[in-house]
Amino acid sequence: MPGNLRLGPSKARDFFDRIVFNFPLLPAATLPRCSAMGAQIANRAMLVSFLETASEVLAPQGLIIIASKDCYPYSWWQIESLAEWARGDLVFAGKLPWSHTEYPLLYTGPCNVNRDQSVKPTDAFVYLFCKELHHIEQATGGASLRGIGWSHGTRRTSGSYSCNICHVGGLASVQDLAQHEAGRIHKKRVALEECWKAALPKLRQQCSSTADEVQM
Predict the structure, then answer these.
(1) Which CATH number covers residue 143?
(2) Which of these, 49, 117, 122, 129, is most buried using a 10 Å CB contact count?
């Protein structure tokens, strides 16, 4: 788990304008007996815990930034929904493709989180969280974001025949939707979300216990 931001060197400051977590991933050594689904749950829980503690040291007009690859397994973490699960006053503000951030000036491509290689810039996004959405345009350049892949708000797929778990839309009929829902990938993602719902109360209890220890 990431360090508690209310402890350590950061406690010398009241608030931060930017809190950045680039390519989060729990080391495999910390998950020796986890299944693939267990690793998904553990990484998602780690990010929820991170957002909960980060929000407490974030300035009112500040931003929390998470950079992550947009492919399996990272895309199954539902990063856009993390603020909904984290207790606090954060909201998901939107995301930008890696290629439209300052990071390409620092790296030729976003580093692969578990190999000494690079991945295509299109495989990564920068996710933004804040406390008040009306500050986001001022904080991120406003109109300059338009037309460069800026996606605002939690991803929801519209239409009568769509799947918000897999983010699949444009299905033509109820039969197409039924065929999608019968697929192996959809069933795996449904099982993941069910396990996550079961794990969330325990995570909240652990976070509450940690908060109580910090206040003592």
Answers:
(1) 3.40.50
(2) 129
